[in-house]
Amino acid sequence: RFPGGPRYDLGVLEMLWAVTTAALFALLDVRRRAPGFYFGLLALLFGVFRLIVEPLRAEAPGSELAIFDRLAATSTAAIGISALALSMHFGRRRIGKEPI
């Protein structure tokens, strides 16, 4: 029993997200990807996941911790978008070439 009512188990939600992301990466591993692709995709997916899960937390939505978490999740998603864009831009030239 929780003082403010029932809560979601965020650990279980994050575990389900991790398993789903690992399965997605296994499916995407069929083709060769540009360097940085998986890093960018992981950062983007994790940032979006944290933004979706943030309202389910027990802390008050306007608390300093919640504001910091939203800022961190948004920054992580932005880093993921940037990494994916750079990966796709520079990766086109490198795919198919032998590593140096």
Structure description:
The protein is mainly α and 100 residues long. It is built from three helices and no strands. The protein has helices at 10-28, 37-53, 64-94. α1 (10-28) runs antiparallel to α2. The longest helix is centred in the last third of the chain and has 31 residues, at 64-94. The chain is elongated. The mean pLDDT is 85.
Notable traits:
100 residues, mainly alpha, 0% strand
Low-confidence stretches: none
Arithmetic mean pLDDT: 85
Rg to the nearest angstrom? 17 Å
Strand fraction equals under 5%
The percentage helix is 55-70%
Task: List the helices and strands in order.
Answer: HHH
Cα shape: elongated
| Distance between the first and last residues' Cα | 59 Å
Helical stretch count? 3
- The number of strands is 0
Largest sheet: none
Label the structural class.
mainly alpha
How is this structure best summarized?
By secondary structure, the chain is an all-alpha fold.
What's the layout of helices and strands?
Layout: H1 10-28, H2 37-53, H3 64-94
